[in-house]
Amino acid sequence: QVQLVESGGGLVQAGGSLRLSCAASGRSFSSYGMNWYRQAPGKEREFVASISWSGAITSYADSVKGRFTISVDNAKNTVYLQVNSLKPEDTAVYYCAVPSLNYRGQGTQVTVSS
Fold first, then answer.
1. Which terminal residue of the chain has fewer beta carbons within 10 Å of its beta carbon, N or C?
2. Selection from 14, 34, 18, 19 nearest residue 77 by Cα
């Protein structure tokens, strides 16, 4: 059974940092890219970042460039999202997904207080 399990969210003050994790299991993901998305209440889902499973190719939304860093640990089958310099507008449920396989996790809440 394929599972994507996010963790690492929480409540943080503006300017703070968190490291989000997405643990993948149930099959090989070596041929696929992983994405992070976020969705705030009442808003559309927003692409945040993506990474190839090798880690060689990354992409970011303009709104997070320079503040967020996506990485992958192949040995642990885990993708990370380091989120720095957080702003209140970063508040959302963050979840990981494998778009080409239509897999996604349940998400982890990030709340940034001003």
1. N
2. 34
Asked whether the predicted pLDDT for residue 73 surpasses 90, the reply is yes
Give CA–CA dist 66/68, Å, rounded.
6
C-beta separation of 96 from 7 below 8 A: no
The separation between the first and the last C-alpha atoms of the chain, rounded to the nearest angstrom, is 40
| β partners of residue 50 | 35, 59
Residue 1 confidence (pLDDT): 86
- Is there a contact between 105 and 25 (Cβ–Cβ < 8 Å)? no
Question: Parallel, antiparallel, or unpaired for β 10-13 and 108-113?
Answer: parallel
Cα separation, 110 vs 48, whole angstroms? 13
Give me the mean pLDDT over the 18-26 stretch: 95
